[in-house]
Specification:
Oligomer: single chain
Low-confidence stretches: none
Number of strands: 13
Mean pLDDT: 94
Radius of gyration: 17 Å
CATH topology: Spore Coat Polysaccharide Biosynthesis Protein SpsA, Chain A
Order of helices and strands: EEEHEHEHEEHEEEEHHEEH
Largest sheet: 9 strands, mixed
Structural class: alpha/beta
Helix content: 25-40%
Strand content: 25-35%
Distance between the termini: 21 Å
Number of helices: 7
Length: 244
């Protein structure tokens, strides 16, 4: 695979989870930190370097990242505008990377088998698009639907995206591949209104037919952003350890 970089967005407050470990990237699920889970999954994709975008309580997290032992090189960059939309954090990380990258949210836990499926499809994604979003059609498996980013796809094309839209037929799983066009789309949106989000890039690229929606299929994932979601992730993880 061509893409050897990954970016994790870890700039938010994490107030809904209030993890005793401190930052939600360090919150443990199944006895392992979210960071360790991410590193394992990214290794399956052949990633060799991880960039973490920090914001709230950045010094504590950056100190932990500097001391972390991993076969994947870990670096970090601070986003002073972390209270705005997440596209600014993506842009901050992209400046340090300088090429295509996988993009994950710090609090999304993915079944390891998902990365194995993605590895098989990665070359087509890298060659045929400027961006990709992992989507989930298994709506009955979503733990906290009100908090999910939803999409309405009509004949495979994007009609709308957002947390409040109705109707919808798929859910954003929080895993992206970002080419140069993805960053240009964010820059254009930011120049227009002084802020930008990953959803803005999705809209712009999809309108130009430069975007791919990749179905996670039978694989599961969980947004670990509340104590209840964390407990649900613990339950899911027990099944993953057997199947993966």
């Amino acid at each position: 695979m061509k893409t050897k970089d990954a970016l994790i967005l870890a700039a938010g407050l994490g107030s809904r989870l209030s993890a005793e470990e401190g930052h939600k990237l360090m919150a443990k699920v199944g006895g392992r930190s979210m960071l360790d889970h991410h590193l394992e999954g990214l290794a399956r994709l052949g990633v060799t370097r991880l960039t973490v975008v920090t914001g709230h309580a950045n010094q504590e997290l950056e100190d932990q990242l500097d001391a972390w032992e991993s076969d994947i090189q870990i670096q970090h960059v601070y986003n002073p505008e972390f209270k705005k939309s997440n596209g600014l954090s993506v842009m901050a990380g992209a400046e340090l990377i300088g090429g295509p990258f996988w993009l994950l949210m710090s609090d999304h836990l993915f079944e390891p088998a998902l990365f194995d499926r993605l590895r098989v499809d990665a070359q087509g994604i890298e060659d045929e698009s400027q961006g990709m979003l992992a989507i989930d059609l298994k709506l009955d498996s979503i733990y906290d639907m009100p908090d999910a980013t939803k999409l309405l796809l009509v004949d495979g094309r994007l009609d709308s995206i957002g947390k409040e839209i109705e109707p919808f037929n798929v859910v954003d799983a929080g895993l992206f591949w970002c080419g140069a066009g993805f960053i240009k789309a964010l820059e254009s949106e930011n120049a227009l209104r002084g802020d930008c989000s990953t959803s803005d890039a999705v809209r712009r690229l999809e309108a130009n037919k430069e975007f791919i929606f990749w179905d996670v299929g039978p694989c599961l994932w969980q947004d670990v952003d509340t104590p209840g979601a964390r407990a649900h992730a613990e339950t899911l993880l027990k099944g993953w350890s057997v199947a993966s």
